[in-house]
Structures are given as C-alpha cells and as structure tokens.
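We emphasize that the prediction below concerns an isolated chain of 325 residues; any contacts that depend on oligomerization or on bound cofactors are therefore not represented. The input was used exactly as deposited, without trimming of termini.
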Amino acid sequence: MSERKVLNKYYPPDFDPSKIPKLKLPKDRQYVVRLMAPFNMRCKTCGEYIYKGKKFNARKETVQNEAYLGLPIFRFYIKCTRCLAEITFKTDPENTDYTMEHGATRNFQAEKLLEEEEKRMQKEREDEELNNPMKVLENRTKDSKLEMEVLENLQELKDLNQRQAHVDFEAMLRQHRLSEEQRQKQEQEEEERETAALVEEARKRRLLEDSDSEEDVRAPAAPRLALRPKPTAILDEAPKAKRKAESWERSVGTLGSRPQLSGLVVVKRTDLGCSTQQGLAPPPPTTQGPMQSGKPAEPAPWTPGASSLSQLGAYSDSEDSSGSN
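Result of the prediction step, given as a token string:
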C-alpha cells in the first residue's frame, strides 16, 4: 500500500517541463484565505468593536506598484460582523506590522505611536550629529551623565536589597507572636477585672436591698416592743400552780376547796326541748346572792340536759368537800 501523503512524485525519464502549458492569471487576482484580525479595530459604519484574534474569511490580493526591499505588500478585505461593511488593511513589512486602510479605525495604538516617535527622534539626532561635531560631544556628555545616574540608582537598590537580606524573618514572626500573646493576655486580664467589678457591684447592691427589706420589716414591729417590751414578764411573776388556778378561775369561776363557796354553783333548769330544737348550748350556771343558810349546798344531780361545764363544777365541788371533811 502506497503512502497517502507523499511529497516526492515520480517523474518519468521522458518528462519535459517545457511542454506543460502555463496558466495566464491576472496579476491582481484575489484569493480567499482564512485569517485573524491583526489588531483591535472599530467599524466606522455601525461602531462595532472587532477584537484582535477574531477569525474571518478574507480576500487577499497583491498591491500593485508597492514593495519594500523586493517584498510584496498584500491587501486583505474583510466584512464587519454586524453591518457587513467592507474593511481593508495591508501589510507593513518595514515595521513588521499591518496598516489600516479603509472602513475602520485602529484602537490601542499608543505603543505604536510611542515607538514611531522614538524612531523619529533618533533619526533627527543622527542627522544633527552628522553635520555638527559639537552636538556630538554634548550628546555624549549627556549620555555619560545619565549613565552615571542610572548606576547610582542601581547601587542604591543593591544596598537596599542587601540590608533586607539580613533580616531574620523567624525572629520577626516570633516577636509578632509574642506581642500577640501579650495583647491577648492583657485583654483577658481586663475582662477578668471587669467581671470581678460587676460581681462586687451586684453583691453590694444585693446587700443594700436585703438591709432595706429588713428595716422595712422591723419598722412596724417597733411600737409593739415598746408597749410590751417583755412578753414573758407575766409568767415570771407567779408560780405554775398559781397561774393554773388563775386560768381556771377566769374560765370557769372560783371553785375552791372551801365548803361555804361550793354552794354558790346552782344548776339552772331550762327547757331541754327548746334548747335542742334551737340547736343552742345550755346556758352557763349562774350564781345567786349570798347564802340563805350556813349549810353547804349539796351537789346537784346529773341531768341529761346539763352542760359539761356545770357537771365539771359539781364534780370538783364534791371532791373538795370530801377532802375537807
């Protein structure tokens, strides 16, 4: 199987290239080529921006009667991507660049203009030095002075770099870390002091509130203490037996062991039906006037309607009389 992409062709021994007819093509013939925009441009018709590197199907032709050192100059035709207006530009072998001709304006060509200005100044200087030897000496003096300034600046930069080269970055980081730790420690101490101050203030406030509440509670009790400074004084004045007798006398009456006083207790006869129907307790025993006779009264018999208080009095009177005999 033969090679598909073969560059060398076989020419038979009887091949005569002069017998091959030549094609007569026009010199301004155009070719369709695929290319990219060589620079940023803006369409003059619609204002569309065409960035550098955008691909176009362009027509290429050779510019007639224009050449640079025997190199032909080519012209390219493209169309705007928005309004389909025709834009043309050609090659510039002198500056190794492209030149805009028609249909658009070139953008961002400040660098190109600067380079052209530098070339123009360099050319004028060469022309001036060619006819004026004093100008040559003056320009050399300026160049030497400028070179010395550049060397001095360069030496200063080198010294600065050497000074910075001796910096211990580890020590700087360590110092920064220590300063950061100290700052955090100080902040923590300040927070602790503030917390302690707040706690102390709250404790003082609580103590003040407690003292105020105690004073409010004690204030109304002061008059009672003044009226009765010693509540147990009455208990210390008499013995326990006397206090018991006094309490009995206040509640029931004087039912001592004397026989002449036992007759003072008399049971009052009342209607039992009325008292039970009304739900009232029987009336207490009442005392009569002075004794009609000197004989002691006998204890009253027990009756169902009699009160427990009267029965208790009768029981105590009987005991006292028997004990006295």
